[in-house]
């Protein structure tokens, strides 16, 4: 197996941080739906719409590559 580069180590750190942060997001989502499901759904819909816009823009960048 090849030795990890400094980039690999940094990417591993980013992955660990994102894992912890994703867990936090899921906890917030559970809490929101438990206490106010209609409002939580409306907010989640807005987040999804904006995420899709970012994905569409990213696709434009990668389609040209």
State the main characteristics:
65 residues, mainly alpha, 2 helices, 0% strand, flat
Q: Mind explaining what this structure looks like?
A:
It is a single chain. The protein is mostly helical. The protein has one domain (6-63). The protein contains two helices and no strands.
Give the helix/strand layout.
Elements: H1 6-35, H2 37-63
Helix pairs in contact: 1-2
Q: How far apart, in Å, are the first and last alpha carbons? A: 30 Å
Helix content: over 70%
Number of separate domains: 1
Strand runs, count = 0
Q: Give the averaged pLDDT, no decimals.
A: 93
Q: Assess the beta-strand content as a share of residues.
A: under 5%
Give start-end ranges of low-pLDDT stretches. none
SSE run: HH
Radius of gyration from the alpha-carbon trace, in angstroms: 17 Å
Number of helices: 2
Question: Structural class of the helices, strands and pairings?
Answer: mainly alpha
Largest sheet: none
Silhouette = flat
Q: Quick summary of this structure?
A:
This protein is mainly α and 65 residues long. It is 88% helix and 0% strand. The chain is flat and about 50 Å long.
